[in-house]
Amino acid sequence: MDLKVESEEMDCKKPPAIEVFAHNSTLHGISHIFTYERVCVKRCLWVVFFLGSLTLLLFVCVDRIHFYLEYPHVTKLDEISTPMMVFPAVTFCNLNFFRFSHVTRNDLYHAGELLALLNQRCVKRVTKCGFAHNTAPPSQYGACQWTYEIRDTHLVEDSVLEALKDKADFHNFKPRPFNMREFYDRTGHDIKDMLLACHFRGAECSADDFQVVSYPRALDQLSRQSLCLCTKDTQKNNSNYY
């Protein structure tokens, strides 16, 4: 009977598991919160200090994560004054390939399809008499005769469409030689129409200080390039100006 009473008294005096864990833990302050002592004021102070430190730690971590997600960077500028500056290599590029008002009938004949203004269509005519046009069997048709038609007429303004119809009339037209460089020089946008004002170091510069530096190297590159103009004086010392 005495052994049973002693074992029951030992079980009652056994500390809770949380106190055992806190006493053996290396986390600073937790052993003072869950302690065997019954001093309430001391435990309350340690609870305040522990929660305050934990809150400060979480606040600093969140602040540093937020700062990292902003991707901060530092830009360093070294300003060097110079008494004399060379006129910079300024390049203007006009993404409009050509001016329609300067396109001629000969231009449309040679490059109308390339300029996305005309479609080339094959028309076969009957070679034997007695058959109406396009009603004979395929074996009766002659050689293919190429003709042109205007593309996307519903997207074109009426005034432009009338001018395009007039220029696209190739009946009895005798084409002349065509040169893409000459076409670009003649129909490309002029720097005088694009340059509104130009001043450098108190002096005025004009359209005469620029010249064309970029041309398409082939007809199939016309849709991927634009007319570019660069200052003249800087081209002698800089070959990579466009």
TrEMBL record:
The keyword Transmembrane helix applies. One of its GO terms (cellular component) is plasma membrane. It is found in: Membrane. Gene3D superfamilies: acid-sensing ion channel 1 domain, YojJ-like. Keywords: Disulfide bond, Ion channel, Ion transport, Membrane, Sodium, Sodium channel, Sodium transport, Transmembrane, Transmembrane helix, Transport. The chain crosses the membrane at residues 44-68, 80-98. It is a multi-pass membrane protein. Pfam families: ASC (PF00858). Its main location: membrane. One of its GO terms (molecular function) is ligand-gated sodium channel activity. The keyword Secreted does not apply. InterPro entries: ENaC. Belongs to the amiloride-sensitive sodium channel (TC 1.A.6) family. This is Uncharacterized protein. It comes from Oncorhynchus mykiss (Rainbow trout). The lineage of its organism: Eukaryota, Metazoa, Chordata, Craniata, Vertebrata.
